[in-house]
Amino acid sequence: MSEKSDGLIKYELLNTHHEKRSFRSFFEMSLFSLFCVVLSNPLRDPFAIDISEINVIDDHHPRVSIEHLSVGHLKSLINNKKSLVSDSDNLTLWNVEGLAEGNDKWGILEQIVTKELNNETSTKQKLKELGAKVLNSSRLVKNIFSVVPKEHVHIIVETSPPATTGKRRMVEDEEDNRAKKRWQKDKNRFQNLINSLPEINVQDKVFKIPSLPGDKGDMDIYNRECYEYLRNFILNDTKFSRYLITGNPGIGKTFFGRLMLIVLLKKNKKVLLDYEAVTALIYPSGDTEYVSDKVQYRQIAEEQDVWCIIDGKRDQLGHDFSNGKLIMVSSPKKSIIGDFAKQWCVKLYMPIWNEFEVEDCWKNVYCEKVPSESLESLKDKFKLCGGIPRLIFGESLLYIKSAIKQELTSVGPGMLCNQSKDFSGDEYTHKLIHMRTNLEETEVEGEKADPYTGCFCFFGSDYIAYKCLKRLKEKYKEDLRTFIETARDIPEMGSLRGQLFELVSHEILCQGGTFPVRKLTDDGSLGPETTLTLESLEEMFFDDISEIEGNTSQGQNKYYRPTSKIFESIDSYVRYNKLFQVTVAKSHGIKQEGLRAIKGILKDSCRISFYFVLPKDIFETYTKKQKYENKGEGIRIDGWIKGDIDQYALCIDFNKCSF
What is the domain range of residue 326? Predict the structure, then answer.
């Protein structure tokens, strides 16, 4: 037994065979925590002050028991933790009930620090209206907080401002004037936008939008084909209240957000525009209202004729908010879009650019802006990085190649395992892997899928695909093999799996070997399994069949792969009359245009063998002849195609093939 002579605390140390506790650890066990928030603009996160049986205050009060802990002691604990003022006596503590981050009281507190903080008298009055009560320094903490509600803020900390001299007041007035001038400059930009509305035609191929806060200058917007569909869907829809437009960074999502801003203002709607540079309510009349806290934000979003456009940041309303119309444009970073897309939301994918769009945009926008940039150099960039205009129009070929090289060092199993989840910000995945979507209405497992609602992952370009495959083969071959064999159950990964399987299959076929094959039948009955033996061949790419004819006339035999799109449905050719189509799909039509394009090198003296190159799991059930497809209306099958071609399934078994 030991006893403190000042009577603050009596304690007994337990020291048994089973339990040993030091004086310090026993008495510093926290009894409860008081969460505090400092009155500052903006409000910062609440912090905890742990209250124990024995509390170490400072050198003057080394240990104070809970029985004697006063509000004055609590001020010292707070100031020691946060260093708010030189003397803790200059702190004023307010006890408040029902205050929690994000609730209505928190919103009112945000308004207080935004509008009233410079006026001490007004601040105190508003805090009283909030239900807060000043805590006198002599009061005991245990009597004030006999019950401590969890997940609430218990104390508001007010720091007494230093005496304001005339000189200081002049400085503050000058700062206020500068702030007002900056906001007026922003308001002038919004007014300029409103004044320009009659001249902006969002149906034009290219239209200009005046600069808004944070913009370098006016925006020339190339009117992508997808914009019209997305715009009309949002305006005509009656089912959803949230619309998420997502896709790879740098493909025009922000421009679409600005297009919707113009469209809605022209329809006499108010728009709450929320992006990194500013959050403001824009009226069709040109008036603007700066929005500074969540309560005000929510109140505005609930008003009739108000639409929210949120660009590249988390929304401030939470996933439970349903009383308003919200449009978000953002890359698929989960921390941004996760809550927004939980309910009442339709997710629409913006496609990457195709080669025609790049060329058309160059002719209509960049040809005069950047005369030194040739169309051929843009095409070279497109081949390198795929359809990302931010890179194609904004960076050099050397930079793009260097950026890809740098990102390739990050390629590993995680790239394959994690792509079924949302991409994360500006990680390497966006530069290497692109998100494609269905441009037309499609049918998925018997259900209709509207345009732009599907998501499929592809390597950004053939160049990127080869580089990624090379690294995966060198360092992560087993992970690559596992992914190709198992990713069939992940819908978003089917296309990426197909790309990898195609690249690996061409390599295996080039090496030569004996492969299981099965002739396909009209009724899908299982035919006998035989084999096809190929010799080791050198790979050669061709644009025109004349290149093959030149080789074969000299007796050369190679593994020929077309680069031109006119040879659709044909991925490779081996002399004589062996055509190969690599796929991971359970069915795959054969386009007659591709067959007609290669007919000139096929020998009439022997039958034509068309091989579907398949992974083992698909090969086992791939038994029925595939349909021939024809461009345009109606089905017309050429006689030689119908009569001279035999279809086969060919199995690539990774357990038996090396690559």
Answer: 180-349
Asked if residue 300 belongs to a domain, the reply is: yes
d(CA 381, CA 393): 9
Most distant pair of Cα atoms in the chain: their distance: 114
pLDDT in tens, 133-185: 999 988 899 888 888 888 899 999 998 765 555 555 565 566 667 777 888 89
268 neighbors 361 (Cβ within 8 angstroms)? no
**DSSP code, position 652:** E
* Model confidence at 315: pLDDT above 60: yes
Region 309-320 average pLDDT: 90
Q: What are all long-range contacts of 170-175, with beta carbons under 8 Å and residues at least 24 apart?
A: 172/118
Find tokens 């998100």 and name the residue: 435
Give the torsion sign (CA, 448, 454, 459, 462): positive
**Residue 59 per-residue DSSP state:** S
Peptide bond between residue 351 and the one before it cis (omega within 30 degrees of 0) = no
Do the strands 30-38 and 47-52 form a parallel or antiparallel pair, or are they unpaired? antiparallel
Per-residue pLDDT band for 88 (boundaries 50, 70, 90) equals: confident
Tell me how far apart the alpha carbons of residues 310 and 7 are, in angstroms, rounded to a whole number: 61
* pLDDT above 50 (res 7): no
Other C-beta atoms lying within 10 Å of the C-beta of residue 68: 16
What CATH number is given to the structural domain containing 98?
A: 3.10.20.90
Q: Give the burial class of 7: count Cβ atoms within 10 A of its Cβ; 0-12 exposed, 13-18 middle, 19 or more buried.
A: exposed
Whether residue 397 is found in the same domain as residue 455: yes
Residue that finishes a domain, picked among 349, 375, 409: 349
Phi-psi region of 452 (alpha: psi -120 to 50; beta: other; left: phi over 0): left
Q: What is the mean pLDDT of the chain?
A: 86
In a domain, 210, yes or no: yes
For residue 635, report the phi and psi dihedrals to the nearest 5 degrees.
-120, 115
Of 405, 257, 417, 386, the C-alpha closest to 327 is 257
Q: What is the DSSP letter of 15?
A: B
Please state which of the ranges 215-229, 483-497, 612-626 shows the lowest mean pLDDT. 483-497
Q: Which residues of 441-453 are buried (b: 16+ CB within 10 A; e: fewer)?
A: eeeeeeeeeebbb
The reported pLDDT for the residue numbered 416 is 65
Tell me the torsion sign for CA atoms 440, 445, 448, 454.
negative
Q: How confident is the model at residue 554 (pLDDT cuts 50, 70, 90)?
A: low
658 within some domain: no
CA–CA separation, 615 and 183 (whole Å): 62
Claim to verify: residue 363 and residue 314 sit in the same structural domain: no
Whole-angstrom distance, CA of residue 212 vs CA of residue 235: 24
Q: What is the pLDDT of residues 388-430, one digit of tens each?
A: 999 999 999 999 999 999 888 878 777 665 544 444 444 446 8
Q: Is the peptide bond before 576 cis (omega within 30 degrees of 0)?
A: yes
Specify the residue for token string 């129009």.
393
Q: Which residues pair with 326 in a beta bridge?
A: 242, 308
Distance CA 437, CA 454 (A): 5
- The β-bridge relationship of strands 270-275 and 513-519 is unpaired
